[in-house]
Amino acid sequence: GILLVLSEASRIAADTHDLWLPPMLAEPIVFAESSGFKATLTLIQVLDCAVVLAAVALATWVFARSNFGRCWRAVSDDPRAAALCGVDVRGVFRRAVLFGGFCAALAG
Hints:
Elements: H1 2-14, E1 28-34, E2 37-42, H2 43-65, H3 67-77, H4 79-84, H5 89-107
Antiparallel strand pairs: 1-2
Helix pairs in contact: 2-3, 3-5
C-alpha cells in the first residue's frame, strides 16, 4: 500500500502525464432495464463471477468426494484421532494453508 502511494506521489510530482490503458473487457452488459434505470455488469465482472462459481463448485466436489476432503474433515473434527488413523495432520494443515492462499489470491 505504501509503495503504491509513494510511486503515485512521485508520478504526480514529476508531472509525467503518463498514458493509461483502458480497462479490459469493460463493455457493459444490460441485464434489466426499467423506467430509466439499467442494471449492468461489465464482461470482466461476468467472467469473474463465472470463475468464482467454478472454483466453489470444484472445492465443494473436492471436499465431498476426495480423499483430501475426508482427511480435512477428520483433522478438523479431531486431529489426534485422525493422526492415530494414519492421516498426516501436518500435511493436511499445509494443504489447508495453501487452499486458503489460493482463495485469497482468487479474491484479489
